[in-house]
Amino acid sequence: MGRSPCCDKNTLKKGPWTPEEDAKLTHHIQMHGPGNWRTLPKIAGLERCGKSCRLRWTNYLRPDIKRGRFSFEEEETIIQLHSVLGNKWSAIAARLPGRTDNEIKNYWNTHIRKRLLRMGIDPVTHAPRLDLLDLSSLLVNSPQLNNLSNLICLQTIMNPEALRVALTLISPQNENQLLNYQNQHQHQFQNQAPSVIQPNQSSFDNIITQQIPSNNPTTSSFNNQSQSLQVDLSSSSPSENFGFDSVLSSTPLSSPAPPNTTSSAVGLTINGTTEDERESFCSNLLRFEIPEGFDYFDDFM
DNA sequence: AATTACGTCAACCGCTACTAT
DNA sequence: GATAGTAGCGGTTGACGTAAT
Question: Where in the sequence does UniProt note compositional bias of the Low complexity kind (predicted)?
Fold first, then answer.
């Protein structure tokens, strides 16, 4: 035999909490402290499940909860911690004083996640989503891409399999060329099985910059402003920011804002930080510049 | 002004690990 | 040791507000 049930679910109230219920719960916890959620509703005179009371207290009524918009530093911390911890919202919340796991989770899903996607960054892996690039339309619209050597530049930063498929769309001859090239440079590709670069991997500490030459028709064909498609995982010392130990020990809120976030971007200003600035900083956390007017990523979102 | 689409977030649901009986 | 309850977590939902048409 185990314990008796904590509550009668048939008589439980659900839905939004009323001010009266909030007052009862708050008063009870002020008098007796949090905990023992099983018996709390009955003692406090609430027709709620203890689980619901705990959630209401921890997510809304707790006096140390910080309400309002997330600051730039908080957002920075969330992104860094998420890159290390993943969807461990409670672990992330533990390093953000005054913020609840639920709040952080909501903010991630409604703001940060979308921003990363818009920037072409996979919000799960925090890596560029080049592996999802719509290469077929890109290649069809850019005959210059038949230049195999240019594609090899891309090869180093994207899933080889995706590139192989893309080449197949052009011609079998090119695919053979690529396979020959790959055979000759086997040692360069054999460790590239993952389709994306993992932020946590040891190579993250090294400078990983793949830059396509400015005279490269691959980029010039779809880019008039930015002369390079760059993946720079080390600028702004992300090895320090993303290193597991440093992230866990430096939080909460100890990471300084990167220098370039003081740019004079115009637009909506929230907490002293514009959306543009926030996006700019995100690109520094994992520097991945998407050329202006390059909208292929939108097709995947 | 009315309607529709979209964004936000509080609250619920279901699951797991832990604990009491 | 087996069983059942509790606490806590992450995913999802739905009500509400706002923007767009």
Answer: 213-239, 246-266
